[in-house]
Automatic annotation (TrEMBL):
This is Glycoside hydrolase family 1 protein. The active site is at residue 378. Coiled coil: none annotated. NCBIfam families: PRK09593.1 (NF007158), PRK09852.1 (NF007356). GO terms for molecular function: hydrolase activity. PANTHER family: 6-PHOSPHO-BETA-GLUCOSIDASE ASCB-RELATED, GLYCOSYL HYDROLASE. Pfam families: Glyco_hydro_1. The keyword Cytoplasm does not apply. It comes from Dellaglioa carnosa. Belongs to the glycosyl hydrolase 1 family. Keywords: Glycosidase, Hydrolase. PROSITE patterns: GLYCOSYL_HYDROL_F1_1, GLYCOSYL_HYDROL_F1_2.
Length: 479
């Protein structure tokens, strides 16, 4: 088996809104996920035309409010990550902990001090912090007052936020990412852009305008970071789903090309290459507008060109299959996107199709396209883990999933891909972004908490904990 390079960043990944809890402590303001109800219908609820962001605890549950209480237990959790041997820990900074309303001129010192402690705790164990500046954590006020990312004012607010955290932490944190899964807005703009039906999500011009504003804001973060320290590594982060045609019908082949361009490649092309791709107008014309209809300036386009990202972070959970000819009989679920069922693949409890070869393809496609380092910052297996009376989970299915994907990574490295690291998602059980559930578990560490918010919150090591510890210890040689 191919050896992983020396210094490979083995670790795990989480997001502030899904595990911290303490949603109204430490001066924190409300964020978009704080107003999202729990449960599998959370996106259906937010997309109702009369959805108004009011928190109604009599009608809904809000699992993000409490998360897994990481805010108070982060030292315990990071110690467990260190026991596994983590070389890196990817986490995010909750924007509304630093700027509670998002538009203040001065930051909340209590929020900054919290992340000082988290970063220092990582460094105590020689764990590299990998920080996502904005991970589905838009301050709610920026949605209710400004309409979300379609408003260009948010560029200024994000620039102030990113400058604040980069200034504060750059001496201790080398690896950064600007926006989490930025391309997910194609299907669910509520999470990253703050757009729902009631404030314009169904008009794709708003989504593309919001993307442009985020591209500009991200380029400003790259510029700020590199001016502080040219050695800082600031990447983008996209959701990647290797996409196949259901059959060789040219209609499906063309549909697959278009889906790849719009979903897998568009946001990366702009952030990595620093300019809009040649197919931009064709994508937009599908929705009845063109690039010149967006609010852009020559200065913004020059900023994009001058400040491309240093690496490509991406999530990979499953592949997708396209069938425009409607030959396929069954549909499939996925990480915010679905498609038709691929008859050659098995699926998880949530219908996500398991495809490690698709990861090798993704790595080759991305590296050949951009020739920049890649970083798998999310990958994992969500399952209904059954704990025994001792709270032990025998999760061989998770080990099998991760093993096959790590083997695919090794094959891609052998193909010539420059891969920096691997931080599987939800290294400790947390609240699912797509369903708002605790029962959809990814972690190496079991958290005693159910979908109704009941449990001790105690942490227990799953079987995969000791397995992954050995993987890291041997730098991927022992799987």
């Amino acid at each position: 088996m191919t050896k992983f390079p020396k210094g490979f960043l083995w670790g795990g990944a989480t997001a502030a809104n899904q595990l911290e809890g303490a949603y109204n402590e430490g001066g924190k303001g409300l964020s978009v996920p704080d107003a999202l109800p729990g449960g599998t219908e959370r996106f259906d609820i937010t997309n109702q035309p009369d959805f108004n962001w009011e928190i109604d605890t009599k009608k809904y549950t809000y699992p993000n409010h409490d998360g897994i209480d990481y805010y108070h237990r982060f030292r315990e959790d990071i110690a467990l990550f260190a026991e596994m041997g983590f070389k890196a820990y990817r986490f995010s900074i909750a924007w509304s902990r630093i700027f509670p309303q998002g538009d203040e001129l001065t930051p909340n010192e209590e929020g900054l001090a919290f992340y000082d402690k988290v970063i220092d705790e990582c460094l105590k164990y020689n764990i590299e912090p990998v920080i996502t500046i904005s991970h589905y954590e838009l301050p709610l006020n920026l949605v209710t007052t400004y309409g979300g990312w379609k408003n260009k004012k948010l560029i200024e607010f994000y620039a102030r936020f990113s400058e604040t955290v980069l200034n504060r932490y750059h001496a201790k944190v080398k690896y950064w990412m600007t926006f989490n899964e930025i391309n997910s807005a194609l299907h669910f703009p509520v999470m990253s852009q703050g757009l729902v039906a009631s404030n314009g999500a169904n008009d794709m011009q708003n989504v593309y305008q919001a993307w442009h504003n985020q591209f500009v804001a991200g380029a400003m973060a790259v510029k700020i970071g590199h001016e502080l320290d040219p050695d800082l590594q600031i990447g983008c982060m996209i959701l990647y789903a290797t996409t196949y045609s259901y059959n060789s019908d040219p209609i499906n082949q063309m549909a697959t090309l278009e889906q790849n361009q719009e979903f897998n490649h568009f946001c990366g092309d702009v952030q990595v290459r620093g300019e809009y791709p040649t197919y931009t107008n064709r994508l937009m014309q599908k929705y009845g507008f063109k690039f010149s209809d967006l609010e852009t300036t020559p200065e913004e386009l020059a900023l994009l060109k001058a400040n491309p990202v240093d690496y490509i972070g991406f999530s990979y959970y499953m592949s997708a299959t396209v069938d425009e000819t409607h030959v396929a009989q069954d549909s499939a679920q996925g990480n915010l996107i679905g498609g038709v069922k691929n008859p050659y693949l098995k699926a998880s409890d949530w219908g996500w199709q398991i495809d490690p070869t698709g990861l090798r393809i993704a790595l080759n496609e991305l590296y050949q396209r951009y020739q920049k380092p890649l970083f798998i910052v999310e990958n994992g297996f969500g399952a209904k883990d059954e704990a025994d009376e001792d709270k032990f989970v025998n999760d061989d299915y998770r080990i099998d999933y991760l093993r096959s994907h790590i083997e695919a990574m090794a094959d891609a490295i052998n193909d010539g891909v420059n891969l920096m690291g691997y931080t599987p998602w939800g290294c400790i059980d947390l609240v699912s972004a797509s369903t708002g559930q605790m029962s959809k578990r990814y972690g190496f560490i079991y958290v005693d908490l159910n979908d109704e918010g009941q449990g001790t919150l105690n942490r227990f090591k799953k079987k995969s904990f000791s397995w992954y510890k050995e993987v890291i210890k041997t730098n991927g040689r022992k799987l």
